[in-house]
Amino acid sequence: MKKLLYCLTISLILFSCKKEDANSVQNPQTLAKTNSIHLSSKLAPQQNVQLYKSWSMNAYAGYGYYYNTKTFYVEVANLAYQKNVFAHQQMGNGLWQDFPLKYLNSIGDNTEMWGLVYDYSGWGTSNNLGDSFAIKYVVNGQTYWDNNSGKNYTVCGSEGMYLQNGVNISVDTSFSYYSSNSATSTSNFYIVADVRNIAMTKNVTVVYSTDGWKTTLTSPLSFSKDFAIGDEAFLISPNVFGIERWVGSIIMKSSSQKFIQFAVSYTVNGQTYWDNNFGNNYQLQVQNY
The CATH number of the domain where 153 resides is what? Predict the structure, then answer.
């Protein structure tokens, strides 16, 4: 994916940043208010597995090189230590294949997040996946399925992000990164988030810190009507699933920071939703240039 980051032709806008005193704005883990909702497990009672989100990208970059990526993030009930989770994916030839997912982290309520980034980019490599898939969970000798109520999930070509019902905001860590340029003594923070288009009027904001939350900075993200993913392909926002892409580019004068921690909030219809990585916040290491 790093190759893709450097080749993006996104026109990002530099936003003004608001610096807050540590006494007035705290670590997003403690920012919960009565009208705020943080990411949490979306598994219903007696439900053992469910797709959380999926991303699809199939784009020609030029000169015979193709970007091909599909991601799966899945919630599973922690029924036993030994378990296997798969993306049961239809291939381009019509056959079905199991792709094993890896454990990512615990997300509370005895629930875990498992995921896979399947990257098959390369020279002369076009899409070798079909559009349909389901989620398979094997534990204690039992197999549980999330096949979208018998319809399977369909995320085609370059449709972008699919968010499960009830998930209204998601940071796209594939496109978010933090870089430093010693020649100019500047640091650049690029952030990408996806939100469900609940209403026309909305605000999406990144809250971040470069000193372990001693001080906190905020900056608004901006709606992106399209998002370049190659020389000849764009994601259209909102996409077919009603998901919008919001982006931001922040330039900081000092390049002395080693990492940045952040979370993203989404306010719409008087309700604020947070993606703070299930209470852990996101952290990006500096990429030096």
Answer: 2.60.40.2440
44 in any annotated domain? no
Torsion angle of C-alpha atoms 167, 69, 221, 281, degrees rounded to 10: 60
Residue 71 burial (C-beta neighbours within 10 Å; 0-12, 13-18, 19+): buried
State which residues form the domain around 143: 49-163
Same domain? 198 vs 148 = no
Judged against a pLDDT cut of 60, whether residue 25 lies above it is answered with no
Is residue 22 one of the residues assigned to a domain? yes
If asked whether residues 151 and 188 sit together in one domain, one would say no
Q: Are residues 191 and 280 in the same domain?
A: yes
Single pTM value for the model: 0.81
Tally of domains within the chain: 2
Residue-wise pLDDT for 140-192, tens only, equals 999 999 999 999 999 987 788 999 999 999 999 888 888 887 777 788 899 99
